[in-house]
Every structure is written in C-alpha cells, then in structure tokens.
C-alpha cells in the first residue's frame, strides 16, 4: 500500500521538476502538452492499480501457494507449492482436472449459445422496432425490463417458475400443452443446462437490443431509400445495409457479451446453489466451489489464473482479428 | 491550471492514503488483547424462523448482560448461507467478531485454521468447568485429543415428525420404529393420496446428516480411524444406497423432493401434504408455519431393527451450535464473561426454550420444559443414540463432495434412472478422489 502512495507523490513531482521546466517557454509548453494527458490519466491509473491489478497479482501469488484452511490465518506461512496447483488443475486424467475440463467445455458451449441467441434476438427486435408505430416506446421499455431488474430477484423468480411440482414452466408445458409425458426437472439433471441458457438469454438479450438500437440510429435513412429505389427488399436491406453498418458495434457487443456470459456467477449460483448439476457446472461456480467450499484457495487461484489466460488469449485474438478486418476495410 | 492539477493530485493522494490505512488495521496473526473492555461483537447464527425473531430473542438477554457487566454487545445475526464465508473472511483478514456461533460440525475444520480460542482447562475453569456440559455435545467441538475450539450452546437431534391425522386416516396406530415399517406404512399413506416422507435432496448438508446416520446403522464410517477418507467401503455404499432408495426403490420420498434445498419439505409437512419428516428440532419452525403442536407427533428416527442406542442403533447426528471466541478479540476477558453468561443455567433455559433445542448444559436440562414429550425424544436421542459427525479437519470438504454425490444420485432417481450399487460406488469414488490428498 505504501508504495502506491509514494508513486502518487512521485507523480505530482514529475512534471514540475522535470529538466524541461527550466528551459525556455516553448519547450515547457510542449512538455505540458505531452504530459497533461498522462497526468490526467494518473488518478485512473493508480486506482486501476489498486482496485484491479493489486488483487490480481495477489491472486497470482496465491496460485503458487498451498493455501488451505491450515494457513489462511497467516498467508505468509503457507508453503510455496511451485506449479503443483496448476499441475492438479490441468491433469485431465485425474478427477480434479477432469472436472475442470468438463466445466470449461460446458461453459464454452453455454457461452457460445447464449451470446448467439442474445445477439440474434436483440438484433431482430431492434431492426423490427426501427419504424415508428403506436406503442413503440412502451414495447422498448418493456424489452429492457429483464436488463434493469436486480439479478437476484429476477433469477429467484425463475427458480420458482422452474420448480418441478408447482412451477409455472411445468404447468404450461405439461399440464396445459401436454408437451411432456410427465413433469420435467429443470433445476437438477440434464435439463438444468436448458434452464440456465433460458435465464441467461432472457437476461442478456435486452443489452444487445439496446446497443444495436443505438447503432441503428447512425445509419443514414438515405441508404435505405436509395436501396428501396433500386428494388431491394427488406431482407436485402438488412443484409446489404444494416448488418455491414452495424459491424463495429457488433464487434464490441459480441466481445462484451462473451466476457460477461463466460464469467457470469450470479445466474448459476442463484439458480442452483453451491453444488451446480453436472450439465450446468459453469466455470465461475466451479472455481468458487474449488476454493471457498473446499477451502483450497491455492487451487482455486490457479484455476482463476488459467481462466484469465484463456480469456486474454481469446480477447487478444478477437481484437487482432477484428481490427485487421477493419484496417482492410478502411483501405 | 496548476491549482486544478494540485487539487487533483491531492485528492488522489488522499484517497490512496485512506485506502491504505483502511487495509492496514489489525493483523491476522496477533493474539487476543483487552484493548476495548467495554464492547463486544457477537455473530449469532440464524436459529429462529427469521433473523428478526432471533433479534427479538437475543436482544433482551444481551441487555441483561450489559446490566450485569457494563459490556455492550453488538449483535449481528448472520444467515446460514453466509456464515461460513464470513468466518473464513474474518479468519483471513483478522478482522472479525469477538464471539461467534459456529455449526458444531465445522468445529474441527475451523480448529485447523487456528482462528478460534482453544478451550483448555484454564479457560473452561473461567466458565464453570468442562463437566457442566453433556458428553455428546462436547464430542462435536473439535478433533479428539485437542482442546475444544468452541463450547456447546444449543443441542439438537433428528427425530421423526409425523402428521397424526394422516396416520389415523391411514389406520396406522403408532409411528414406524424401523425402516421396513416406514416403507410398509408408506403404502397405506399413499393409498390415502398423501405423500409419505419429505427430504431435501439438493441440500448438501442435510444429505450428509442422513447418510452419516445410515452409515452408522450399517456399521460403517466415512473416515478411517487415522482420519483418511474412506467413502467406498461396502458399508458406506450400502448406507448411501439405502437412503437414496427411499426415493428410487421404495418410492416413499416423492421424486419432486430431489430438487428441494430451501426447506420446502418442512413447508410440505406443515401444510399436511407429507405424512412424515426427518428433521432436527422442528417445533419452532413448524409453529411459525401454522402447524400447532397437537397436530403432529415426535418419535425417534427409525433404525434397521430393534430400538435406538449406541453403535449400529445410532439414529441421529449430534446437531447443534457451538459458541467460539475469535482469537484476535480485543476484549478477551469480556468475551470469556459473555460465554460464561450464555452457558449459564438460566440463559441456557431461556434460549433453548426459545429455539426448541436442548441445553448442552446438564443442570439446565432438568427444567420441566425439556422433559415434555416433544423434547424428551430429542433429549433421549442426544443422550443415548446420537453420534458426532467425523471430527476431522476435512469435514467441510467431506460435506461438499459426498453431499453433492448424494444430490446427484437423487437427481438420477428422480429422472427414473436406475440407482445401483455400482452407480452409488462410482459417485462416491469420484467424491473421494476430490478430497485433499495427504
């Protein structure tokens, strides 16, 4: 902690005591011009260090320690375990590693499906809401409700609806529509994946809707008018004008949705509690269980670091790919 | 410009300094002291129907303590879903309450962290001696042979709660004493269109409490005498299978209960949907849900044959709450006084009456309230046929891994998949492999 305070003090002294300050007004001006943005960024940078990087570094350090209940009272005494925690995590033949791999694959599948559905529904809704019609404002507000509700309240409502005996979902699917032979279990067993996906999409698509709707405002109407004159139908307009124009918006939207969904903890935790069913064992809850419930914070941290690395690689790769695409388009 | 810059830098420095000092207080390794002799912080577990009920029960007693000693106790009732995490966080940071409630099954795990004050002979003397407490309760205060990590506060035991009216309608004259009788009675109850037995299939801790007792009845233990996990021995497999078979084969636990984890089975029982419930000290809970005491009977949990007792006749775990002192307390003397107060004969009577639990203090048990039929069963069970859950440091992991295995088996049973000796063994094997290697 003290080091960051010193850093703040240093930060203050840098621009004023720098050698350039004494030499002629012109150079001072330039240094001020160059230095000012950095200075303005400094508070954010320091807070970023404090709020994000310091805990991350501590987490990484923890991952190299054997931090179990015997040592949590005084972390310093926890023995260094080298790469043991990582070895356990990625040994896919052993139960712990195998469970982690399974959880990882479930999470990837879940995330891809959820993001795709969120985007599809959000975009479709935004495109259809583009034209003015009576009640549009009301519908827009209504669509945003899932996004605005507190997560816990929203998900616990779903828990009630998914109940086997008295839940609304079984009442509709089984009692009313007779689609299933017998009431299904949604919160345990294999169906839990569907339940989780449903809640996640329900919760996530309004965000896609919101962003795409904002993106649509920036597409000049003349483009559509010109296309209509040339005889383009609705589908062609969407394909040739709307989607290409939304490209930059979509690139960010997909990335954000991916990261949020992949790391989502609240939804599975509220739906299933501490021990998620196998079919819906998302990695965030899995890691929580590995550290908090079994009191092995070292292994939990190692898993978190691996997750961080994976997300870094995916994000980096995604950004590199999309920015290359954009540069090519600019040329 | 310059003044704005200075102000900005000043603000940042200040916020950092504040943050730094906020992180700096207290060390996690220091021992207790008597720095603040006039106040105490007390984390109470949620024993009543709600947190508000707990506050109403406890506050008058805390006021009494303040009158006697001049020490003000700040009460916080912590819900069960948060309690263990809060304790772990307090342990890690060294910033915690002075006195706290712990589930007695956590005693050995928390003892291993070294965060709780050990109750050696000297400390016990300050609260009137170890022999004031009932043996069965003391058996769940930490690893055998070590100084207890906490002292018993409330004791509870499992009993069979049965709906008198449903039993009468089905022509059953007395509660089942063995599992075979329970299954046979179940057939009669089902003919009357009622559900037989409630269970919390997705509640990991409940699962553990039951399979532990079934394990005892099969003469099996989940841990070897030297504390190693032994989840796949034949007795344990048979025990787990027998419990899950109550749903899978005998069909006395309704399939829907496989997803229960929020005490829905208690509500079902209180509403008269289910005829029987295995629960610990449920009276207060049932009353708050509108079921009066004359509507249900209380009997010992069934055994394989014969009557409850020691060894394979065990029919309950020793359930209960322990009172612990956080080693980092700044009011060690006050904390000890508070423990003495809470475990005094008089307070024991008041508190255990309020929570329909049994006092772990022998002298307090003589109160007529605890010899009424309802409590007599619980008291008897605790004295004669209850066993403490394994007192090993890995108890918490055991609850999670085996409890989850049972939850998955219930999910299989509910989905109509076969639950076989092999499938039970496979799940338990997986659970065992997830235990920390030593």
State mean pLDDT of chain B (0 to 100 scale). 89
The helical percent of chain A reads over 70%
* Helix content, binned percent of chain B: 40-55%
What oligomeric assembly is this protein in?
Answer: heterodimer
Tell me briefly what this model is:
The complex is a heterodimer of chains A (331) and B (438). Chain A is an all-alpha fold and 331 residues long. In chain A, 74% of the residues lie in helices and 0% in strands.
Give an overview of the whole structure.
The complex is a heterodimer of chains A (331) and B (438). Chain A is 74% helix and 0% strand. Chain A contains 13 helices and no strands. In chain A, helix 4 (95-128) crosses helix 8. The longest helix of chain A is centred in the first third of the chain and has 38 residues, at 25-62. Chain A starts with a helix and ends with a helix. Mean pLDDT of chain A is 85; it is low at 1-22. Chain B has helices spanning 2-24, 51-69, 80-93, 107-113, 121-126, 135-138, 164-169, 179-191, 204-217, 234-248, 264-270, 283-288, 332-342, 345-354, 362-365, 373-385, 395-414, 421-433, and strands at residues 39-45, 72-78, 99-103, 151-156, 158-163, 195-198, 274-280, 296-299, 316-317, 319-325, 386-387. In chain B, the strands form 3 sheets. Chain B has a 5-stranded mixed β-sheet. In chain B, strands 6-7-5-8 form a 4-stranded mixed β-sheet. Chain B has a two-stranded parallel ribbon with strand order 9-11. The model of chain B is unreliable at 6-30 (pLDDT under 50). At the A-B interface, helix 1, helix 2, helix 4 and helix 12 of A face helix 1, helix 3, helix 4 and helix 17 of B.
């Amino acid at each position: 902690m003290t080091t960051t305070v010193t850093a703040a003090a240093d930060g203050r002294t840098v621009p004023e005591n720098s050698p350039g300050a004494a030499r002629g007004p012109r150079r001072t001006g330039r240094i001020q011009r160059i230095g000012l943005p950095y200075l303005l960024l400094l508070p954010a940078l320091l807070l970023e260090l404090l709020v994000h990087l310091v805990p991350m570094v501590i987490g990484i350090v923890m991952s190299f320690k054997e931090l179990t209940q015997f040592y949590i009272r005084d972390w310093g005494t926890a023995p260094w375990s080298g790469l043991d925690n990582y070895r356990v995590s990625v040994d896919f033949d052993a139960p712990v590693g195998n469970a982690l791999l399974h959880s990882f694959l479930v999470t990837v599948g879940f995330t891809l499906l959820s993001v795709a559905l969120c985007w599809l529904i959000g975009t479709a809704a935004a495109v259809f809401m583009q034209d003015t019609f009576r009640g549009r404002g009301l519908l827009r507000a209504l669509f945003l409700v899932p996004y605005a509700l507190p997560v816990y309240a929203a998900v616990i409502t779903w828990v009630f609806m998914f109940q086997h005996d008295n839940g609304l979902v079984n009442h509709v699917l089984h009692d009313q529509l007779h689609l299933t032979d017998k009431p299904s279990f949604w919160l345990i067993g294999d169906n839990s994946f569907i339940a989780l996906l449903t809640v996640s999409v329900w919760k996530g698509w309004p965000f896609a809707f919101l962003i795409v709707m904002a993106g649509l405002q920036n597409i000049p109407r003349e483009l559509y008018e010109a296309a209509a004159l040339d005889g383009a139908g609705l589908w062609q307009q969407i394909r040739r004008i709307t989607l290409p124009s939304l490209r930059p918006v979509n690139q960010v939207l997909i990335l954000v949705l991916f990261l949020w969904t992949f790391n989502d903890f609240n939804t599975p935790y509220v739906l299933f509690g501490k021990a998620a069913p196998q079919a819906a064992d998302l990695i965030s809850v899995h890691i929580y269980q590995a550290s908090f419930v079994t009191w092995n914070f070292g292994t939990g941290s190692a898993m978190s670091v691996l997750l961080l690395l994976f997300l870094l690689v995916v994000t980096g790769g995604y950004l590199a790919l999309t920015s290359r695409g954009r540069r090519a388009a600019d040329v | 410009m310059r003044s704005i810059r200075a102000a900005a830098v000043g603000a940042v420095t200040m916020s950092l300094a504040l943050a730094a000092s906020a992180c700096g207080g207290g060390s996690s390794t220091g021992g207790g002291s008597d720095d603040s002799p006039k106040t105490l912080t007390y984390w109470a577990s949620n024993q009543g129907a709600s947190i508000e009920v707990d506050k109403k029960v406890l506050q008058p007693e805390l006021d009494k303590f303040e009158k006697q000693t001049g020490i003000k106790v700040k009460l916080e009732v912590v819900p069960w879903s948060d309690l263990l995490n809060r304790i772990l966080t307090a342990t890690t940071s060294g910033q915690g309450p002075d006195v706290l409630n712990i589930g007695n099954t956590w005693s050995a795990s928390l003892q291993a962290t070294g965060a709780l004050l050990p109750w050696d002979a000297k400390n016990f003397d300050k609260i009137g001696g170890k022999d004031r407490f009932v043996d069965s309760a003391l058996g769940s205060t930490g690893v055998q042979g070590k100084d207890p990590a906490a002292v018993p506060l409330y004791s509870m035991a499992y009993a069979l709660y049965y709906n008198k009216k449903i039993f009468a309608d089905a022509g059953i004259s007395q509660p089942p004493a063995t599992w075979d009788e329970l299954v046979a009675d179940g057939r009669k109850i089902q003919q009357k269109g009622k559900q037989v037995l409630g269970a919390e299939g997705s509640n990991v801790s409940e699962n553990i409490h039951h399979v532990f007792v079934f394990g005892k009845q099969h003469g099996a233990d989940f841990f070897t005498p030297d504390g190693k996990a032994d989840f796949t021995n034949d007795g344990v497999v048979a025990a787990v299978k027998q419990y899950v078979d109550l749903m899978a084969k005998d069909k006395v636990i309704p399939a829907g209960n496989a997803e229960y984890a929020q005490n829905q089975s208690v509500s079902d029982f209180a509403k008269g949907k289910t005829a029987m419930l295995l629960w610990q000290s449920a009276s207060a809970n049932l009353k708050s849900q509108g079921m009066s005491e004359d509507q249900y009977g209380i009997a010992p949990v069934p055994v394989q044959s014969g009557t409850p007792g020691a060894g394979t006749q065990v029919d309950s775990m020793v359930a209960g709450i322990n009172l612990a002192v956080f080693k980092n307390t700044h009011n060690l003397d006050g904390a000890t006084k508070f423990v003495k107060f809470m475990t005094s004969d008089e307070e024991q009577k008041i508190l255990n009456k309020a929570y329909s639990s049994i006092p772990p203090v022998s002298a307090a048990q003589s109160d007529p309230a605890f010899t009424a039929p309802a409590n007599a069963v619980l008291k008897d069970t605790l004295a004669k046929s209850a066993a403490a859950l394994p007192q090993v440091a890995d108890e918490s992991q055991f609850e999670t891994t085996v409890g989850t295995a049972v939850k998955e088996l219930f999910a299989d049973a509910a989905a109509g998949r076969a639950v076989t000796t092999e499938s039970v063994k496979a799940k338990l094997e997986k659970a065992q492999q997830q235990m920390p290697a030593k």
